[in-house]
Amino acid sequence: MELALDTSTDVSGLALSRDGEVLAEMSWLAGQDHSRQLFPALEALMERGGVGLEEVRAIFVALGPGSFNGLRVGLAAAKGLALALKAPLVGVSTLEVEAFPFRSACLPLCPVQGAGREELAVALFREGPGGWERLWEDQLISPRQLLSRLPKKVLFCGEIPSRFLDHLGAWEGEAVIPSPSARRRRPAFLAELGWQRLQERGPDAAASLQPIYLRHPPITQRKEELHGG
């Protein structure tokens, strides 16, 4: 049995799986209240699945990019559970979790998240002849720069901010955009990707596993500014 945890954004999710095949999952709008809501939700999921935590043999966690506090809560919980259960831990990019459901579309897949400051958090993936592959690393980029670099036909997914949709109106390329409900991130795909990673690469080193912050958190920036005088 594996447990997948995703607290990357306002939408949180949990999944139970066996060998990557999902047995039960739940997602809910947690807002910024991840720390208070995560463990009651986990207890409810375990009860619904009729299993105990002692049956969990691996932990998968979404690493971001996303909410500063949400990522800290999720990774801290995942590390604590992995330590207590003596279970392997695997981290997966949140953008990759958003792109993975569309791998059969035969198109480049661009997950998009709003990142503030007129920037977007993006990556690029596709399902090629050799299987699932990452074309771009997770990165921050302006909408204009993103559209200038993309292929002429792309499937956009993820929690796409509405202001980015406005930019697409003037883009010369062809944008395929699934409905918001189809783009909603599901922990089932984190479970599937996590299981694949565990089989292919083995577990991550829990002590060094960190959230994916594409920009220094504000608290860090203030500290640097203070030290810099």
Explained architecture:
- The chain has 229 residues and is an alpha/beta fold.
- Helix content is 37%, strand content 28%.
- The chain contains 8 helices and 10 strands.
- It has helices spanning 34-49, 68-85, 94-99, 143-149, 162-168, 180-183, 187-201, 218-228, and strands spanning 2-6, 11-18, 21-29, 58-62, 89-92, 109-114, 120-128, 131-141, 153-157, 174-176.
- The protein has a 5-stranded mixed β-sheet with strand order 3-2-1-4-5, sandwiched between helices. A 5-stranded mixed β-sheet has the order 8-7-6-9-10.
- Helix 5 links the parallel strand 9 (153-157) and strand 10.
- The longest helix is centred in the middle third of the chain and has 18 residues, at 68-85.
- The protein is globular and about 55 Å long.
- The chain starts with a strand and ends with a helix.
- The model has no long low-confidence stretch (mean pLDDT 93).
Total of DSSP H or I helical runs spanning 4+ residues: 8
Taking the alpha carbons of the first and last residues, their distance comes to 51 Å
Low-confidence stretches: none
Main sheet summary: 5 strands, mixed
The helix content is: 25-40%
What is the β-strand count?
10
Shape, principal axes of CA atoms = globular
- Lateral arrangement of strands in the main beta sheet: 3-2-1-4-5
| Strand and helix order | EEEHEHEHEEEHEHEHHH
Question: If you average the pLDDT, what whole number results?
Answer: 93
Strand content: 25-35%
Structural class: alpha/beta
In quaternary terms, these chains amount to: single chain
Radius of gyration: 18 Å
